[in-house]
């Protein structure tokens, strides 16, 4: 009889412990509160702007981010530093063309988190149908089921077959060269 009471007590303790553990859950990315800023440099200057997030979901377990994804709507890309409307339109037309992001064929890019270790995030970035694994540090907070995450990410555009103006492919380009690395500042907020 004593062993039956011990088994029942152990099962009851296990159920209480299990009930107190938060189950993993998925929270949607708040598209209007989240943002992506970009910065691209060339020998003679730089350009900066924004691009929108069209969808996203983050996986949390208790107060930890454990996974997730988001989709970048390349049709929303904007240049903020070019104030002349005609030149701005021409610039956006060029970077959305086949020389750069080829948005008619590839209207979105995406990022899927594969691992979160402390403040290091690893995931698969897909641009122009090409997927590469990248790792970067991020500031991540999960409070009351709400997630905020911010990261500065440097990407080599040539990894995604964006070769226009790259010295890797055009040696004699001189001061018309565009640097291969571009920077993204990603800020995600869940709903």
UniProtKB/TrEMBL annotation:
Stretch forming the signal peptide: 1-22
Recorded superkingdom: Bacteria
Occurrences of domain Lipid/polyisoprenoid-binding YceI-like (ranges): 26-191
Record's keyword terms, sorted: Signal
Gene3D superfamilies assigned: Lipid/polyisoprenoid-binding, YceI-like
Descriptive protein name: YceI family protein
């Amino acid at each position: 009889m004593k062993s039956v009471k011990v088994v029942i007590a152990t099962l009851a303790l296990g159920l209480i412990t299990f009930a107190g553990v938060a189950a993993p859950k998925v929270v949607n990315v708040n598209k209007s509160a989240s943002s992506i800023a970009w910065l691209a440099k060339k020998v003679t200057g730089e350009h900066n702007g924004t691009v929108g997030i069209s969808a996203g979901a983050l996986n949390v377990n208790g107060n930890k981010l454990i996974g997730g994804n988001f989709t970048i709507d390349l049709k929303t890309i904007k240049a903020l530093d070019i104030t002349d409307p005609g030149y701005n339109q021409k610039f956006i037309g060029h970077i959305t063309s086949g020389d750069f992001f080829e948005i008619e064929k590839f209207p979105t890019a995406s990022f899927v988190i594969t691992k979160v270790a402390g403040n290091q995030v690893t995931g698969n970035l897909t641009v122009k149908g090409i997927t590469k694994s990248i790792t970067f540090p991020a500031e991540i907070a999960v409070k009351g089921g709400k997630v905020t995450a911010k990261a500065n990410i440097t990407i080599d555009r040539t990894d995604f077959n964006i070769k226009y103006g790259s010295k890797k492919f055009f040696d004699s380009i001189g001061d018309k060269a565009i640097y291969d690395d571009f920077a993204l500042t990603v800020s995600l907020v869940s709903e």
